[in-house]
Amino acid sequence: MKKILVVLFSLTMLSLASGCAINRATATVEGPSALGNIKTMYVTKLAADGRGINSLIADKFSKHGYTVTTGIEQPSDVDAIVTYRDKWMWDITMYMLELTITIRDPKTDYPLASGNSYHTSLTRKSPTEMVDEVVDNILKQGK
Questions:
Q1: Is residue 79 part of a domain?
Q2: 99 within some domain
Q3: CB within 10 Å: which end of the chain, N or C, has fewer?
Q4: DSSP character for 49?
Q5: To 10 degrees, what angle do helices 127-141 and 53-63 make?
Q6: What's the pTM?
């Protein structure tokens, strides 16, 4: 009986200690020329974003040669609008679970390209790394 309890206890502890590690990074672009004419972008800041994800996204696109602004008031003279959705989780500390970035036509709001990054706690990345991953994947697909 004692051996059975030890085995059950060991199995229970093992199942609690093992986590599910998921990495997923995807990107889709409407067509080969969808991003070709874009020179200026505007990153729309989410009202609830207190972590400055909009600035990270704007900085990353700027490093790739785009002229990027960000804020709450959308200008009318840009080639693309960039929106994002971030999802956060708690596991001892808060971490970004998922980030989706969408590049839209400013006139029609049609999505020209989008990318997603999903990392669970065991494979978590910093917000900067998640932004880098998503933007790089979008731009790679757009070439």
A1: yes
A2: yes
A3: N
A4: -
A5: 40
A6: 0.82
HSE, side-chain direction, 13 A CA sphere, residue 43: 25
112-123 pLDDT, tens digit per residue, is: 999 999 998 788
103 - beta bridge partners?
82, 113
Range of the domain at 116: 23-141
Measured CA angle at 84 (ends 83, 89), to 5 deg: 165
pLDDT score, position 18: 45
CATH number of the domain bearing residue 116: 3.30.160.670
Spans of the chain below 50 pLDDT: 11-18
On whether residue 137 sits in a domain, the answer given is yes
Query: Which pLDDT score, from 0 to 100, does residue 36 have?
Result: 85
Hey, what are 107's tokens? Answer: 């006139």
